[in-house]
Task: inverse folding
């Protein structure tokens, strides 16, 4: 029965084979390519990496991608947590509200894009409202405001998802603890900081990972709304990869991708570590 | 417990294999019937094997095969309604032109090499949905209900009429689905209820052919004096005169494997016509063209769909014609509804299966490319030319998507052998070693026919030629002497125009152009000098360009009436030849505008300009810096490095640059001097007639160029030094922002800033 | 009973606070629902009215685009157009169906056991596989696009629906979700079953699946939305346009046909919305479960 410990592998195997074929092997191929010439496959060592770290577009795209994650992740997590807490208190309406928040998840990207075009165009609906209110319009997609638009669409789309996740986390915190605290005279805020926050920590890992994952998906909207050369602030790594690929700069694309993967890996590890430690 | 785990593994493994197998089977079916396309599939397999020969290697090497030629329909044909073989052996086609809303009957006596086209006269404006060609050369055109109908005699005289179609249900009128003439001249129509009638267009009467048929007919083909019709239970051949059904089990089962029984608007899953032998039937589907002898038990495949365009599942079939036992025509339309007419002629010397394949890629299709392919195909019947067009109109695919697909193909080793480089990132391709040096090839052509050296020189880099345009044009200022004098820069030209305007505010100084048209024309005229030494874009020049475009656009205000459809519809293909200079000439002729800017792309353009300007006293000159004028390259070609030794690829490019192909079309000046001489020799004289806005007639007789004029033109062509800025990404950004700017969104400075920001991003990648 | 007492105790301040809360939450809900209302209004709006509304965006010039919640002259024209005059719409609809059904079925077949294996067995390399799955799950499509193409080409399934379905089947995201859920089933129950002599597969089949059903369903709902909205994969792997899914139909419609586009969007959204609403309870439970552990 020595091999019994491999039973889990039997369940995993078919899936793992597929994952290897469709994701792992391609990814390893990308790693290989990051050390070779674009065409011809000559080994060039770290030259590609040197090249991309001296490349203005790459640095900018990497910066934007990180900045986007750094801005929108905390924002989304905080807003959704706030709503989740309120919803839990509210009880009535909560079913309807949860449903409503989740709906953006189901709207196809292309429809969202159509909407965004009408809303955020220089002559769009939003500017119409602004001018009617006596403000001057903003060129949403061609100024720094585009970054805000992107953050907004990310939060809009993922809010419901995260709210539901938080509610799940909140429900794990035993009610008795709150009651005990209240008896001790603890106020709402104290309760939140000393009971709620530590209580939902286990759930937070999943939520952060999933929200991070979804932050990459915002590229779809950015690309469909603003094309392959958008305003500087919303020029993401995926834009660059696509453009590199069009120009057949597979070497740069591969090393850029590997760098990105390494950063993601590092961040996820870090996240897990910090969760494990506490 | 052991058993349990083993069972799991087994079950999952089985399940996985089952999924896999089911997948393969399904997929093939999918591709074979109605999607995918035979030729595409072949390509996929090529990739697997790594060489194009392998796909065909298991075929026997016999001789004799039907070779395909795509026939060029006269230019005015946007839609083809019917085709027919006449009793004199010639072929006629009913065509429709969307712009003029005219119907034409076109006849060819040489199997489609040349056409003689006649407008259908006396047509009231009604929507013709069905038509048929009679064997005597006459035709009938009718609306969907048969209520309005025009019968055309062989001589071309048209009489209006109407068919009294029974079967109306209250308000809902019965409709005609299909019409056709039998060999003896009887008109057959099919209504949407599936009833076949003999019709008399003159009397307006119809007579049911098969009374009390239990089934409805879906669609039909004419085979001599019989009708071959598809019904629910299969295919039947019916005597059109007596209504007698000729029993034939093999024929009946032909459509059994088909998944789509019904036809669409002028498109059918199967086509039927008579075979060359008595009592035989020909049918066509995506698998090919088949022959069936009545009473026989087999269907013989004459043409394998996979080797010709028939296998392309995006082609929908409209009509098949048998000319004789070695010649067939198939009419259809592609996925965009563009009519396609293919001719198949048996070549006993061609190997039964083409041994080789040549892959040609272009972002956009062009007449030049089509001609080069059919020329090559004629010379090399053993090679199957697989043409891939990345960008087709109206399907939402952007050039970006298309280029990425091309990138994956190239990286996977499935790339094309020959590339048409218009719109493709050439710089990057050369840098990556995708393109082969073809200097020797170009020089071979140069030795044979002579090339415009100035064009060739512009493409030599480090002693190699990776890219060579096959055609080109150039930008001109056209108009009164003063305007032509201001030819050296956009600023000078606008200075002239503004001066003119201030002295006479009520007149139109410049010929009208749409925003997009204007931006393109000025781009052609100005962009050659935008790149700085370090490769970046000159912001000042860009801004000056946008400013000039804006001023040009705002100078004259044309009323809606003046700003007619022609201007509105003035669209551009990517780097394409608009022939815009002749449009300017047209406006000059009706006295709209003292001057204009446009691209000259053919000797014909020049003829027209000279004729017009001779009448109203003007001239034309190359636009731009005096000693550094630019040209617009078109259909630039390159060979993939992996096919550098490929003789077919080399032969194809040689053909494209060679005299015959270069002479064949006037979509830009040929780079081939011998072909240019042919163009000069082939000049025709003709007359243009039109009317001015005030209703007075305007006209001009277009003459052959005088020797002096021809010499001037030659000197101009030889003086062109550098290509315009052909980078597609930059051009698209400029035009896109330019249109916004001209539309009133922001100043030229703001537009230039936006463009510069994006271009900077692009160049830093 | 307890609740009522609690409510009774609430004094006025709490009441106001509650109203404010509700107000904020409702406002957010409106923001979320707005686009759907927008789509509905747009799909019933006639071309002229639409043109009137959005002309500034289309053609530039003066003024700003406006929007009406309810069209002045509602019409079903666009709906008719979508359903009766757009054969390619249906073709693409079916392609979407095929892709989605294929992917979901495949995931049930291989993803579910994978998740179970990861959740309830400890074996060498488990931790590594788990991390690997998370990292692969995070990888944007563009990263492995080319190499994936090469693999698909090697398998000979390029330009078939399988080129989109198979990678979808092995998506590690749903494994991640289901894993989370299966982890929530207490080991004690399974140990008990094992003691009763149940085989490993039986445990998975009889206990894992029923107990994990809401997690499985929620993974499926999320995957459905994912499949229904695929854009990059089909564009890259399907050259034959007749194989394209519905998600690629919408971007093809230009702004000039905004009314039609909105209507087509609406029709596209409907199946997703239905699946979503039908599965939302499970989804909630599933997501809930996913968050529980760790």
Result:
């Amino acid at each position: 029965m020595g091999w019994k410990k491999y039973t889990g592998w039997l369940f995993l195997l078919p899936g793992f084979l597929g994952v290897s074929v469709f994701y792992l092997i391609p990814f390893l191929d990308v790693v290989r390519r990051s050390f070779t010439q674009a065409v011809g496959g000559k080994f060039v060592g770290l030259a590609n990496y040197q090249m991309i770290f001296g490349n203005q577009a790459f640095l900018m795209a990497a910066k934007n991608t990180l900045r986007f994650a750094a801005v929108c992740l905390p924002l989304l997590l905080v807003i959704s947590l706030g709503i989740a807490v309120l919803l839990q208190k509210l009880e009535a309406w909560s079913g309807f509200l949860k449903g409503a928040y989740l709906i953006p998840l189901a709207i196809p990207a292309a429809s969202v894009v159509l909407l965004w075009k009408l809303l955020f165009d220089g002559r769009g609906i939003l500017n119409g409202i602004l001018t009617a209110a006596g403000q001057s319009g903003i060129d949403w997609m061609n100024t720094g405001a585009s970054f805000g638009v992107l953050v907004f669409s990310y939060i809009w789309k993922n809010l419901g998802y995260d709210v539901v996740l938080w509610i799940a986390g909140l429900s794990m915190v035993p009610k008795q603890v709150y009651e005990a605290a209240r008896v001790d005279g603890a106020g709402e805020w104290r309760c939140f900081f000393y009971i709620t926050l530590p209580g939902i920590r286990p759930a937070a890992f999943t939520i952060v990972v999933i929200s991070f994952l979804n932050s990459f998906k915002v590229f779809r909207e950015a690309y469909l709304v603003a094309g392959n050369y958008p305003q500087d602030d919303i020029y993401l790594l995926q834009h660059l990869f696509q453009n590199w690929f069009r120009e057949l700069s597979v070497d740069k694309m591969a090393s850029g991708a590997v760098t990105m993967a390494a950063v993601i890996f590092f961040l996820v590890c870090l996240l897990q570590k910090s969760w494990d430690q506490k | 417990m052991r058993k349990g785990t083993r069972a799991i593994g087994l079950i999952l493994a089985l399940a996985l294999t089952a999924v896999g197998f089911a997948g393969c089977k399904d997929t093939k079916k999918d591709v074979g019937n109605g999607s995918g396309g035979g030729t595409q599939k072949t390509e996929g397999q090529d990739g697997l094997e790594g060489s194009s020969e392998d796909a065909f290697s298991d075929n026997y090497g016999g001789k004799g095969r039907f070779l395909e030629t795509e026939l060029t329909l006269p230019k005015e044909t946007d839609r083809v309604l019917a085709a027919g073989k006449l009793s004199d052996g010639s072929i006629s086609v009913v065509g429709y032109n969307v712009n003029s809303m005219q119907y034409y009957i076109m006849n060819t006596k040489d199997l489609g090499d040349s056409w003689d086209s006649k407008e259908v006269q006396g047509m009231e404006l009604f929507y013709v949905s069905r038509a048929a060609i009679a064997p005597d050369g006459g035709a009938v055109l009718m609306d969907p209900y048969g209520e309005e109908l025009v019968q055309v005699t062989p001589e071309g005289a048209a009489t209006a009429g109407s068919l009294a179609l029974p079967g109306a249900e209250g308000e809902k009128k019965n409709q005609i689905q299909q019409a056709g003439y039998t060999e003896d001249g009887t008109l057959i129509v099919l209504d949407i209820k599936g009833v076949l009638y003999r019709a008399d267009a003159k009397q307006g009467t119809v007579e049911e052919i098969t009374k009390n048929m239990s089934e409805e007919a879906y669609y039909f083909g004419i085979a001599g004096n019989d009708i071959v019709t598809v019904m629910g239970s299969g295919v039947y051949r019916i005597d059109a005169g007596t209504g007698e059904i000729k029993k034939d089990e093999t024929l009946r089962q032909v459509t059994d494997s088909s998944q789509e029984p019904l036809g669409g608007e002028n498109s059918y899953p199967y086509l039927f016509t008579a075979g060359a032998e008595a009592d035989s039937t020909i049918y066509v589907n995506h698998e090919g063209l088949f022959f069936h002898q009545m009473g026989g038990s087999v269907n013989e495949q004459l043409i394998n769909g996979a080797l010709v365009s028939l296998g392309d599942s995006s082609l929908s079939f409209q009509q098949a014609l048998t000319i004789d036992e070695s010649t067939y025509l198939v009419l259809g339309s592609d996925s965009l509804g563009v009519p396609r007419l293919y001719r198949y002629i048996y070549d006993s010397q061609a190997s039964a299966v083409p041994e080789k394949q040549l892959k040609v890629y272009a972002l956009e299709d062009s007449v030049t490319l089509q001609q080069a392919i059919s020329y090559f195909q004629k010379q090399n019947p053993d090679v199957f030319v697989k043409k891939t067009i990345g960008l087709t109109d109206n399907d939402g695919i952007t050039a970006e998507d298309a280029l990425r697909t091309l990138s994956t193909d190239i990286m996977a080793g499935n790339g094309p052998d020959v590339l048409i480089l218009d719109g493709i990132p050439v710089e990057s391709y050369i840098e990556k070693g995708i393109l082969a040096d073809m200097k020797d090839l170009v020089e071979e052509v140069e030795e044979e026919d002579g090339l415009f050296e100035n064009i060739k020189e512009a493409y030599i880099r480090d002693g190699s030629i990776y890219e060579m345009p096959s055609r080109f044009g150039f930008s001109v200022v056209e108009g009164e002497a003063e305007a032509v004098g201001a030819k050296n820069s956009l600023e000078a030209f606008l200075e002239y125009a503004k001066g003119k305007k201030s002295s006479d505010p009520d007149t139109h100084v410049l010929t009208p152009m749409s925003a997009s048209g204007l931006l393109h024309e000025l781009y052609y005229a100005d962009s050659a000098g935008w790149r700085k030494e370090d490769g970046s874009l000159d912001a000042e020049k860009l801004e000056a360009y946008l400013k000039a475009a804006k001023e040009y656009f705002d100078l004259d205000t044309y009323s809606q009436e003046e700003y007619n459809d022609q201007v509105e519809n003035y669209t551009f293909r990517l780097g394409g030849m608009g022939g815009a200079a002749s449009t300017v000439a047209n406006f000059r002729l009706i006295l709209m505008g003292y001057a204009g800017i446009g691209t000259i792309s053919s000797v014909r353009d020049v003829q027209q300009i000279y004729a017009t300007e001779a009448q109203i006293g003007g001239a034309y000159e190359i636009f731009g810096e005096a000693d550094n004028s630019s040209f617009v390259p078109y259909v630039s070609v390159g060979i993939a490095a992996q096919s550098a030794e490929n003789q077919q690829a080399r032969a194809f490019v040689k053909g494209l640059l060679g005299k015959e192909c270069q002479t064949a079309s006037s979509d830009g000046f040929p780079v081939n001097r011998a072909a240019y001489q042919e163009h000069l020799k082939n000049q025709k004289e003709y007359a243009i007639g039109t009317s001015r806005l005030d209703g007075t007639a305007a006209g001009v007789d277009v003459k052959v160029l005088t020797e002096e004029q021809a010499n001037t033109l030659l000197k101009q062509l030889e003086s062109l030094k550098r290509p315009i800025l052909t980078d597609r990404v930059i051009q698209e950004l400029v035009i896109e922002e330019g249109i916004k700017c001209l539309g009133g969104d922001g100043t030229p400075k703001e537009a230039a800033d936006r463009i510069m920001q994006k271009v900077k991003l692009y160049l830093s990648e | 009973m307890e609740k009522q007492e609690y409510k009774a105790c609430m004094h006025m301040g709490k009441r106001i606070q509650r109203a404010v809360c509700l107000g904020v939450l409702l406002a957010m809900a409106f923001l979320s629902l707005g686009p759907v209302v927008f789509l509905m209004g747009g799909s019933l709006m006639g071309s002229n009215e639409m043109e009137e509304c959005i002309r500034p965006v289309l053609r530039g010039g003066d003024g700003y685009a406006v929007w009406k919640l309810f069209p002045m002259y509602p019409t079903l024209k666009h709906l008719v157009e979508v359903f009766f005059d757009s054969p390619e719409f249906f073709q693409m609809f079916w392609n979407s169906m095929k892709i989605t059904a294929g992917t979901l079925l495949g995931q049930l077949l291989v993803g579910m056991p994978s998740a179970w294996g990861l959740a309830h067995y400890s074996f060498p390399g488990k931790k590594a596989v788990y991390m690997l799955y998370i990292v692969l799950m995070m990888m944007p499509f563009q990263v492995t696009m080319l190499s994936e193409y090469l693999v698909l080409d090697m398998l000979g399934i390029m330009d078939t629906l399988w080129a989109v379905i198979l990678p979808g089947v092995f998506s590690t995201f749903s494994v991640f979700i289901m894993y989370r859920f299966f982890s929530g089933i207490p080991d004690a129950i399974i140990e008990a079953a094992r003691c009763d002599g149940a085989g490993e597969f039986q445990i998975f089949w009889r206990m894992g699946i029923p107990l994990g059903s809401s997690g499985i369903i929620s993974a499926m709902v999320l995957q459905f939305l994912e499949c229904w909205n695929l854009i990059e994969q089909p564009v890259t792997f399907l050259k034959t346009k007749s194989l394209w899914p519905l998600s690629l139909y919408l971007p093809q419609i230009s702004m000039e046909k905004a009314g039609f586009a909105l209507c087509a969007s609406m029709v596209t959204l409907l199946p997703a919305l239905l699946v979503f609403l039908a599965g939302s309870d499970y989804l909630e439970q599933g997501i809930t479960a996913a968050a529980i552990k760790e």
User: Anything to note?
Assistant: Chain C touches chain B at residues 59-62, 106, 109-110, 113, 145-146, 149-150, 153-154, 156-162, 165-166, 199-202, 204, 235-236, 239-243, 248, 251-253 (CB under 8 Å).
